[in-house]
Design goal:
homodimer, about 525 residues, alpha+beta, Uridine Diphospho-n-acetylenolpyruvylglucosamine Reductase, domain 3, Vanillyl-alcohol Oxidase, Chain A, domain 3, 7-stranded antiparallel β-sheet, globular
């Protein structure tokens, strides 16, 4: 991972000329000046304050060199990248500890609790909500707990269950499962770098979670090392044994303890991936089609419906842009389809079932005015599915403020929320686009992308837009996050979502499992 | 509901002569002597100790007559019925309060917390784990909080969501939903009397939950009145906003507060119910077929696979017994099927989809040796699906110890657990039968029925058998309960399942939401 941005240089791809020109028109002014990041050694770090007791006890698994500290100082949010690029970090871990086993995690937590050292669990470091922000809280020092060495894989094929170490990256887990003909089916945009532990700790959703289920649906068991002790819940298909303790630890974002193993439901690896595009007359018509498909059990495994603005932007800039975008425009023109919303659907599984499911869904799509575009837009989307963060890096080089945020709500409230958040964002950014990417029987997610030219202090600019959107979300019945998690960025809004008494219940659990308050300070609940 | 047993006299049906004869052979000795319960007025109750402050404040919603107190003194477990029938209750509520609104619940909790009065939420009163046991705990008095008047219904058809009052009985909720072409799809054996609040508070599963989902899968939101305040989580299709607070309150069994409203996912009412029977060569073969169907997305909505012992018992005694049972025996004889396991499958939905799903599943069933018995056993099962508790009443009249318990585990552990629990029970009862009734991708439930002649103190006899089974369950990797909940009966085993640290986390939530410890003392965690 590039220390100042996303991914590696080999996979970066500069924006096409026509895309840049289109964006210049939308945002106003030239985007031709490129400002790169400072050099790694120019990033200023405070001297390490790690107590000698911790340093001496864990010397073999400790790093505190400049690069290790920088690489664990931030996630991959827009503000994180602004700070990294300018070398002006707010904070950095005093050291990085990389335990190799559950017992070593326990030992680290014990020592840190005794020495008053905060612990920030670190998986892939891809948080976009400051979830791995190296905050000290009330502690004197802070370590980043890199879980990369916890990468066990134990597969119970008969029970379609995998016990996975939290440090496994998405591709590593898929490779191990794929060798047995299985898949987790969990492909968030961060897939290439994010970790299994991060998925579970942040309650993430993958692009195909409409079909395979969100990570919270897949968790059958887990092992948590907390400062107060261990919670070991073996895999269980279902239980009525009291309050949902598994679900309470899923989404706890490292504030209660460290997930050292998770048991996840896995599926048979699909024989076929059939991904295709449709154009629907409007965002509203597309949403109605998706609602009907899901409620009647006819849903594809992936559904991604762009609103009119995102459709225009996609055709001009993103995966289906360039030559393909122009061809698509010509094709639509020839078929007398103007404007409208782009819909990508993905069907996965055994070939005959894919065909039967698709055949059952097509009449519903047609009834809502969907015009088939064939598999080309689907293949283009698959090819570019992890590419968004690279594009962000390029745009940031050119002084663009580019950010995304997501929410979810019931179907009956979807367009009220869509308009409210869109209106709030348009006061801060000229280009606001949205898509529905996860569909449920009772509602759907909304994922907003917004762009503006950087103006003034980029962090202040970000704060104002983010606050406006978050206020609009909680005021209009959305959840503060559908799959990015809470971290530090959403923490001020979480209490408004769960209420004072709900927050008090969560704090009581925190106080019980982490009495010294060393676990990931400042996240979830302020 | 008959105060001493289940249901009402109009629906009781005495066991057939041939069934009694068969049972006499299995259990040894005559079952012809019938001992009925004492008269209602013979049930001994202690004088009410309700503080005057509570009595004066809630006179309009209070009852403390003999019948009301007896009717709220017990659930419908075997020990409950033993105590009711002999008139020897351990405890009774000092009064019954029936609030008519969320605000009235809040007022009751406030007054009871101030006066040191324990509160036992009471829905349908059908708990089989002493979940509505009127224990005082450390309080001076105890009230039963009858939620029958909280029976609001607000339907959001577009979002396939219903906001339901906790006091609605199963049939009331289904009637309201059915009028709009919808169903909750939740049909536990207690359906005719159990309440919506009870379903959610106990994390219940219905007979068709393999298709419609357990109640925990259906909860989208809820409102909880706790002594410390209110937790109001509006319906939300999905969220990544921190630990699972909804799931933490689901299954809290009245120990944290009172559910005053729940938002549940509902489905389109099925056009067709296709229920049918199969005979499979063995319990093991049937389980393999169900595992394959579920893991490959071909599962029916209801699957109920009896082991060989339950198959024999069903044919002799239960829903498919009598003339039908003998005809079935003759039919199987003619087809040279001997012994084996009875499998009932139910398919619900739109007629064409039912046909297509069934057609896709039949090859898998045939491959595992299933022989079709047609729809007659399916119809018989549907007809008798709520009848078990009536049969229990009749058998108890005849001095039979009859009890059920359930667990679940991963597929890879299913037969280890099956043998361990069966072996433990056979040391206490000559007749032990089992079925799989809920199927998941990673595992399945096991539901045991066991019968013996009552011997010595029936409560001691029960305790010994129950403890042996529960020990076997936790020692062999099962959950202490798949859908009956924890209540008082399973509380000693819950800590073994969730561990000391897990239990401490749950206690911390309890202490936060119910600082005076008035909510349903003695349940969940001892």
């Amino acid at each position: 991972m590039r220390w100042w941005g996303w991914g590696d240089d080999a996979h970066a791809e500069p924006p096409a000329e026509h895309a840049l020109a289109w964006l210049e028109g939308e945002l106003g002014g030239s985007l031709r000046e490129v400002r790169r990041h400072v050099a790694l050694e120019e990033v200023a770090l405070p001297a390490s304050r790690l107590p000698a007791a911790v340093r001496d006890a864990f010397g073999t698994i400790l790093r505190d060199d400049h690069e290790a500290r920088v690489r664990h100082a931030a996630g991959r949010s827009y503000p994180d990248l602004v700070r990294l690029r300018t070398g002006a970090l707010e904070a950095a871990p005093d050291a990085v500890l990389a335990p190799r086993s559950h017992d070593e995690v326990v030992a680290v937590l014990r020592a840190c609790a005794e020495a008053g050292v905060a612990v920030v669990p670190f998986g892939g470091g891809t948080s976009v909500v400051a979830g791995v922000d190296p905050a000290r809280g009330a502690c004197d020092a802070v370590v980043s707990l890199d879980l990369g060495a916890l990468c066990e894989v134990v597969i119970d094929e008969r029970s379609r269950t995998a016990l996975l170490g939290p440090g496994l990256r998405g591709p590593e887990a898929e490779a191990a499962l794929g060798a047995r003909g299985l898949t987790l089916g969990h492909f968030p945009q961060s897939f290439e770098y994010a970790s299994i532990g991060g998925f579970v700790a942040t309650r993430s959703a993958g692009q195909a979670s409409t079909g395979y289920g969100r990570i919270d649906d897949l968790v059958l068991g887990l092992r948590l090392a907390a400062p107060a002790g261990e919670v070991h819940l073996p895999p269980m298909p279902a239980t009525a044994a009291g309050p949902g303790l598994r679900g309470l630890l899923v989404g706890s974002e490292g504030t209660l303890g460290v997930l050292t193993q998770v048991a996840l439901r896995v599926a048979r690896a699909p024989q076929e991936h059939h991904y295709e595009g449709f154009m629907v007359p409007s965002f509203g018509a597309g949403a109605e089609a998706l609602r009907e498909l899901k409620q009647d059990g006819l849903s594809p495994d992936l559904a991604r419906l762009s609103d009119e603005a995102e459709t225009r932007m996609s055709l001009a800039v993103a995966g289906t842009g360039g030559v393909k975008g122009r061809l698509l425009g010509a094709y639509l023109g020839a078929r007398h389809v103007r404007g409208g919303s782009l819909l990508i659907l993905g069907w996965e599984g055994e070939a005959e079932r894919v065909r039967a499911r698709r055949a059952a869904a097509l009449p519903v799509l047609r009834r809502h005015g969907a015009a088939g575009l064939g598999t080309s837009p689907g293949r283009a989307w698959l090819k570019g599915r992890y590419h968004g963060p690279y594009l962000r890096d390029d745009l940031m080089d050119r002084g663009v403020f580019v950010e995304t945020l997501e929410t979810a709500t019931q179907w009956s409230n979807l367009f009220t929320l869509y308009r409210a958040v869109g209106d709030a964002l348009r006061r801060h950014a000229p280009l606001v686009a949205c898509h529905v990417s996860h569909v449920y029987a009772s509602g759907a997610s909304l994922y907003f992308t917004f762009l503006a030219r950087q103006e003034g202090d980029p962090l202040e600019q970000w704060r104002a837009a983010k606050a406006a959107a978050c206020d609009a979300i909680v005021e209009h019945g959305g959840t503060i996050t559908h799959h990015h998690a809470v971290g530090r960025d959403h923490a001020p809004w979480l209490v408004r979502e769960v209420g004072e008494t709900g927050a008090a219940a969560l704090r009581a659990v925190k106080d019980e499992l982490d009495p010294a308050g060393i676990m990931n300070p400042g996240k979830l609940l302020p």
